[in-house]
What we know:
- The protein has three domains: 2-125 and 341-368, Rossmann fold, CATH 3.40.50; 129-244, Rossmann fold (3-Layer(aba) Sandwich); 251-330, 3-Layer(aba) Sandwich (Rossmann fold).
- The protein contains 15 helices and 13 strands.
- Residues 1-28 have low confidence and may be disordered.
- Strand 8, helix 9 and strand 9 (241-244) form a beta-alpha-beta unit.
- It is of the alpha/beta class.
- It has a five-stranded parallel sheet with strand order 6-5-7-9-8, sandwiched between helices.
- Bound molecules: 1,3-dihydroxyacetonephosphate and iron/sulfur cluster.
Amino acid sequence: MGHLVSISGSSTTKPPATVRAPEIEPGVGCNFDSYLLVPDNALDDRIAAAKARLGEDVVILGHHYQRDEVIKFADFRGDSLKLSFQASEAYARYIVFCGVHFMAESADILRRQHQIVVLPDLNAGCSMADMADIGQVEACWNELSSVVDASQLIPVSYMNSTAAIKAFTGEYRGSICTSSNASAVLKWAFEKGEKVLFFPDEHLGRNTGYRMGLPLEEMVVWDPYQDLGGNTPQAVRKARIILWKGYCSVHQRFTPEQVARVRREHPGVRVIAHPECRFEVAQAADQIGSTEGIIKAIESAPAGSEWAVGTEIHLVNRLSKTFRDRKVISLDPNVCVCTTMFRITPQHLLWALENLGSGNVVNRISVDERTRHYARLALDRMLALR
Ligand code: 13P
Ligand code: SF4
């Protein structure tokens, strides 16, 4: 057996160039740190070999914000909606999710009995999902019930939320949505009740509601740290959508000033922004679109067209490299990276695959049965709107 090399330190530490490559035998269950010593030029071959050894036992799902070195191994790439369909349709024994924690949780909720979901780095979380804590949401619901008829209140939760929030949504007759289908889900919700509690992304809720024709005055923000979310009872009674005060730290960085600047510097440019961007940016842009929507828009654009894109930088750079006859730039001149998506490194992927190859499951994501049951109701309501 090859000797195991274990080093301490953070998982992002790079080994010095002079360190000899460890002879780690595949699937020996060694700890992750050993994999930091695998030289970059050996990673690709080893990942490909580990994946080939697993064959049909593994499917790798990759979100568009993953780095190139990782996403190139994905069997399926997509936005949150597309990947949740892939997860619900997969048969492989192992689903390795190159994305963030809430995505792997959703895959675990949708998986078949025999399947196991793995997230290569458990630190790949989402700051937006963490902004709606289940205790806060339950307290919000109780407060709202004291001023409005709760039977007319439908919860709509963005995919970017914890399994506990999804379960709450399912239990209270609501649905999940993603940035690709938020308007269809809101339409569905308004057929079931008069008001929607939308969480955790304030901006996706407002941008979608406004584009469906709801005036801004009929949408109030719920701040979980204030009584009645910082609203008067009258304002809550008048509101059609109650927007949870949550946001994406990446998309929050785009500003209307950047839109104005890019239009000045690139006459004729089309600006396309993700609906997690704030309202003023969405209003100033020519188009809004989920990650999948952004890809489709640029894919179908004519050669020579110029695009400024308000979303995560790995997707923007990939679009720029893929469509060389179109000019694709980021709306933000400074790099807008999702640091938690970036946690999934090729080393993590290799570690997960080689361990699976020896029957050793690492970083399994497992949602308890009760949570799964109710969260599945909410996800199924969304998937039925296909
Ligand atoms: P979509 O993949 O639904 O476009 O969402 C983007 C995102 O922020 C994922 O975390
Ligand atoms: Fe969360 Fe934003 Fe990163 Fe998506 S891009 S995972 S919403 S922090």
